Amino acid sequence: MTILLQSSTTLSQSNLCRSSCGNIPISYPFGIDDGCGSPYYRHMLICSDNNTKLELRTPSGKYPVKSISYSDPHLLVSDPFMWNCQDRDNFRPTRSFSIDSSTHFTVSLQNDYLFFNCNAEKVIVEPKPLFCERFPDRCDSSCDSSSYLCRHLPECGSALGSRVSCCSYYPKATQSLRLMLQNCATYTSVYWRSTGAGNAPYDQFPEYGIRVDYEFPVTMKCLLCQETTKGGGICGFDTRTQKFSCLCKQGNVTTYCKDPNLVKHKRVGAVAGTVTAVSAAGAIGVAGGVFWYLRKVKAKAPVTCGVQSNENRIF
């Protein structure tokens, strides 16, 4: 007796998931090939230019990714439209960076934004300590002209000159960032990077870029899938249903690569290309097959059902 298990249409197997883009490692929860990683971040990262350029896709555009941290979950991206030291007082047209609030990305609070040549009639440009002391209820609305970063621009020295004003302000929403840019010539973002010396916050130094934090979804299925003793699979998902899938060299499974239940099913004749059964579903499949086999013998008529599919499978 042979029991057929319908193969999944997920094409992504472990050998089809790229593990890097340029010099940036790619691992769970991210993937640059469809079906790899977590569905949370499907189509969010793009690897182009012959597998050398990694970009983050957002509503405001695509941005080069400088690095990804998995221990301290965040991406560091750059915005080519932002001001840099080479621009000096030659301000180019810019656009506001934004993240879709419905995704599992957030703009980090560790970013500092510097705005240049703001309209003093529309923007409160004041030394923040003095202004907050005088107007505590309006403290968050001021753009700090006494900012340390304005006086010590990273990598620039005295790049701005006397004709350019600078202030520091953290927009609490994309809309407030857009309003600031309507009344300021340009802006840039500075992220405080840790040196890893373990003496926070004194082990940090400023670096141009935008830190984007992300959620790291951890599930027992994924942990089992990645376990070396259980086959060392890659966590992924079915591209049709977006349900979890463990990507193995021999195909995709819903448990882990060395699941003994899958081996047992193969011994009784299960056809396994890309197997999508777990142990419970396999047991039901065997029982169902025996039931229809006996019915076939009794009725001496061909059986037209009893083959498992994704629709009637129990996960």
TrEMBL record:
The protein's location, in the record's own words, is: Membrane
- The organism encoding this protein is Microthlaspi erraticum
Matching entries from InterPro entries are given as: WAK_GUB
Q: Does the keyword Metal-binding apply?
A: no
UniProt GO molecular function: polysaccharide binding
GO CC term, one of those recorded: membrane
Tell me the Pfam families matching this sequence: GUB_WAK_bind (PF13947)
Tell me the superkingdom of the source: Eukaryota
Task: Give the bilayer topology.
Answer: Single-pass membrane protein
Residue runs in coiled coils: none
| Name this polypeptide is given | Wall-associated receptor kinase galacturonan-binding domain-containing protein
